[in-house]
Each structure stands twice: as structure tokens, then as C-alpha cells.
Amino acid sequence: MRLSRYFIPTLRDNPKEAEIVSHRYMLRAGMVQQTSAGIYAWLPLGLKVMNKIADIVREEQDAMGANEVLMPTIQSADLWKESGRYDDYGAEMLRIQDRGERDMLFGPTNEEMITDIFRTHVGSYKQLPMNLYHIQWKFRDEIRPRFGVMRGREFLMKDGYSFDLTHEDAVIAYQKIFLSYMRTFARMGIKAIPMRADTGPIGGDLSHEFIILADTGESEVFADKKWMEMDTTAPDLSYDDIDGLSEYFKELTNIYAATDEMHKEENAQGVDIVTARGIEVGHIFNFGTKYSDPMKATVQTNDGKQIPVHMGSYGIGVSRLVGGIIEASHDENGIIWPEEIAPFHVGLMNLRFRDDACTKACDDAYAKLQEAGVEVLYDDRDEGAGSKFKNMDLIGLPWQLAIGPKGLEAGTVEFKNRKTGEKMEVSLESALEKIVD
Ligand code: P5A
Q1: pLDDT for the residue numbered 1
Q2: Residue 221 C-alpha to ligand 1 middle, in angstroms?
């Protein structure tokens, strides 16, 4: 992509309204624009990152055997009256009426709707286990939307729902999700720590939050010091290996971590605890028959009985992750994207636009990178070198390739790793080779 053709409205100065670094950098890098309190338009660069995050989430959900669906954002209040949550949910729910004065709402979550879809189509234990998910916009009328996309009112969530015959089977589903979440977050280049958590308005008795550590995190966390040094890459384990799944789950949920002091006193005696702040990027719940019971979502067992299906729900904050990852990965000059979700892999800079030889070398490099399938953002504008370097650091692509007339004379280009800051003077050919590798 040529920067001259890319809609990326960067800002030179820090926007006043942004209290935390991710919000500042997202506005300055032209990734989003606020349209009302807690509601954002996603501009090309921000959307590209969010789509990459959603792709990883989708791939890992599919690998675990979940089926993707897409439910609407607007829901009928009737379903929520059946479950009892229409009254319970309170002011966070955006309630609307259609022209026939029917009560509708903009979905804050989809437990009721998925339970309705399930009961409409599934009636036998033979169709279980089942796991359905979608990636869809949610609305929660938060009292204090803040921190940009991290606590928005409209936000993108992956929400998945599992259906099982027994509590034991539902626990297996929960442990599969647990493993898939560890894989999902590791693939994004971040360390997410699972923590025992409260269930709030979703309900149930078994729940974990997945937290990334960052000074600006909204939740206070209490975690065993071990987590700090630990590599959280998930083991190479099959989703069919039930014993392995449960062992992995137990192993990780022993290492103590929780989001409230109460759990600390109960379970953390003798553990070396670190207090930190974190951002909740995922939250999973097992709530048994909380929805299937009142909504009569039953299945027939193999001896002919009708029993309510056991359920769980599993969320990932897809739009929140864009900000969360910046909180976890940046420096004073800008964003440092992990490779896997970087909007482009390389930033190519023409340091002297008015020098024909230089521009030709840049155009050639751009063509070669594109041919090799490398995602490249090419700063081909008639701007000074200093401002190009600054801008590229802000945008935070993993690699930078700067081509100027002096280097070209000596047969070299400057190749920089954004994360380490390491710079190399190498030939254009060897830089291209390294990138393509
Ligand atoms: C689980 C899936 C649920 O809603 N029902 C369906 C369950 N859980 S949750 O914890 O309330 O939300 C799941 C994840 O969504 C993100 N999130 C938000 N992101 C941005 N702005 C918000 N206001 C917001 N609220 C929740 C979080 O990442 C959370 O873990």
C-alpha cells in the first residue's frame, strides 16, 4: 500500500481527551475516530489490525471444533423476559421499540438468543456436544465509557456457547475452551494469564478471566510471582485428549491468580504474590442450566428422559484487544505491533522523493516485496525524512526499510527492527531476502 493512497489521518499532537497510551496512539496513528461517547468508527489501519485479531480468534475457534454463526445485533425483549434478565440487566441495556411498539434491544450478549436457536433445532443427546460462536458487535450503555476502545459502549466480541448433556461434559467443553484461549492469545504475541473470577450478570459458579498485564489495566490482580517468568505458550495437545486437557487446566489453575482480595485470602496462603494491574481480554463461564431451565431448552437422554442442556459461554474482547495489545507493547515513540497482528509487515521509506534514482530504487523494492507477498506500507510522499521516521515509529510496523541517496551510492539501505531498535546497513538485496524469509 502506498501511503499517498492510504487514508490514515495521523495527528501530530497528543489528543487531550486520551488518558492512556493506547488511546493516544490509536488516535494519533489514525486508527479510529470517536463518533459518540464510547462509540468509534474504525479507519483503515485500525480495522486492519482488528480483522487480523478476529482472524486468529476464528481460526482457533474452528480448530477446536466450534461452528461459526452470525446472530443479529437487535434482539426481541421476549427472550430476555423468559430468562428473567430483561429486568435484571438494568440501565446497561439499550432498550428500543419498533414501529409496532414491540420491545427490542441492542444485544449486550447472546445467551438467550443462542438458547432459543438451540431449542428450536436440537432435541437429542446424540447431537451433543455442540459449540457455536459468532463475532458480532455488542452494546452496553456503560456509565463511564473510557480508555478509547477498551471500555466502549459499542464493541466487537467473540462470544461462544457450549451445549452438553451433563455437568461433567460441560467441564470438558470448558477445558477445551481454556486451552484454545491460551493458544489464541499466545498467537497474538501477548501473555494472557487466566484468573479465577466472579460471574456477575452472566451467572454460574465456574469462571475465569484472561488478563494481560499493563499498568493502565482496570482490574487489580493478585498473581503468583511464577506467572511473571512463565512462558504461556500452550502445549501441543489434542482436543480429543480429555485427560491431557484436564491436567493442563489443573496445572495452570494451581498456579494462583485472581482478580479479588477475597480469593486471595481463601487460596493464596504461602504463595509469593505480586499485585499488578491488568486488562481483561477474555472471560469464560460455566453456568449449567441457568438459561436452559427457564427457557425449556431440553434434550432427550438415551433412556428417554428430557433434561435441560448444560451450557457455558465464552467471550473475547476483539476490539478491546486492539487497545490492550498496544498497552502491553509500545514505547515512547509509538506502537510496537507483534508480528502476527501487525497491519503491515514492513514500512518502506523513500528518504528523498525528489531524487529520481532514489525513487526508482524504492519503487523497485516495493514491487519486489509485493511480488513476494510481503505486506508493505510504502511512504512515497513528498515529505522530509525526519517526519517519515517519526511517523513509521508511531505506526509501529515490525520492520522498517529506509532508502536514501547516500546509502544507495554506497550500495546500502537502512533496515531497522522496530522492537529492538537494532539498525543494519545492508544491501537492498539482502534486506529483501531477510524480509521475505
Ligand atoms: C461471555 C460471552 C460475556 O458477555 N457472554 C457471552 C459472556 N462476558 S463478558 O465478560 O461480559 O464480556 C466478554 C469480553 O468482552 C469484552 N468487553 C468489552 N470490550 C470493550 N468494551 C466494553 N465495554 C466491554 N465489555 C466487555 C471483554 O474483553 C470481556 O472479557
Answers
A1: 97
A2: 18
